[in-house]
Amino acid sequence: TQAPVNVTVTGAAGQIGYALLFRIASGQLLGPDTPVRLRLLEIPQAVKAAEGTALELEDGAFPLLAGTDIFDDAKQAFSGANVALLVGARPRTKGMERGDLLEANGGIFKPQGEAINAGAADDIKVLVVGNPANTNALIAQAHAPDVPADRFTAMTRLDHNRALAQLSKKLGVPVSEIKKLAIWGNHSATQYPDIFHAEVAGKNAAEAVNDEAWLSDTFIPTVAKRGAAIIEARGASSAASAASAAIDHVYTWVNGTPEGDWTSAAVVSDGSYGVPEGLISSFPVTARDGKYEIVQGLEINEFSRTRIDASVQELIEERDAVKKLGLI
Ligand code: NAX
């Protein structure tokens, strides 16, 4: 039988962690034949709560769960990690400027990048969920010079799934019939969900919608501001849907995208589509042999160009701000 894969999860005692860990333990992250060992990282004050979750994981009697270890030290938590889900982050609190937010998160993602560099397994794959996800991923990546840069990714799969759901409702087709949707740019309100290359039951989605006003005034803002709508309705931010998207992101990374389709992930730019090299930006991506690759050669119309550029501009500003703070 296969040796367990080490999966490190930060922010394990948080609400996304609570929804995520049980799905990992049940085999949904890597597949039904792969045993996993969980390595949970929390801040000291939250270790007790993580221990409580570990008791419940034990009570799940998951056949694929080889064990759960809890740490408050990043070096230990990432030691031997094959997959790392960086969920814990410093949220923006009232009155906090963007610079303060970036600095507080730099204090988390810099040492975590260093710990990954020092002790993760050679095949390490990193997904950053904690916001601001793209720039947190950039900070971690910058402090892991010995790890190939393409192992660092940030999550826009939730945005992708939200876009699939909205388009499915609009056209009255199941999500399974929609292919080649894409999220571009930053996981923020500037993100651009693109349906111009999408196909619905074999037909072009933008043509099927045939309503540019719906696109710009309803679809794009609904997807981009869905996080706020969830907070408004639930009184708490998206958790189970975020955990589900994190599962999707890693599962696809490891197991590949289906022929004739792609997905969305924030990956290190190679300069494609005018996105400056090195930025961690969302693109349409395929996955093959354990690698995410940016889909090449798509024609970008003017509607899309403006929106992609605006979101990438925000990423450039975040990168410049963390550079100024000495975080990268
Ligand atoms: P919670 O506040 O419930 O949990 C965060 C947990 O992280 C806490 O238990 C905290 O103790 C822990 N933590 C803080 N600093 C840590 C550190 N240095 N090392 C280890 N653990 C640490 O937040 P939750 O709702 O679980 O959300 C987690 C993050 O996901 C937030 O940053 C949130 O903004 C982000 N999200 C990202 C999404 C995406 O699509 N990329 C969507 C959902 C979510 O909003």
UniProtKB/TrEMBL annotation:
Residue ranges occupied by any Lactate/malate dehydrogenase C-terminal domain in the UniProt entry: 156-323
Lactate/malate dehydrogenase N-terminal domain: residues covered: 6-145
CDD domains assigned: MDH_chloroplast-like
InterPro entries for the chain: L-lactate/malate_DH, Lactate/malate_DH_C, Lactate/malate_DH_N, Lactate_DH/Glyco_Ohase_4_C, Malate_DH_AS, Malate_DH_type2, NAD(P)-bd_dom_sf
Binding site for substrate: R92, R98, N131, R162
Record family assignment: Belongs to the LDH/MDH superfamily. MDH type 2 family.
PANTHER family in the cross-refs: MALATE DEHYDROGENASE
Name the record gives this protein: Malate dehydrogenase
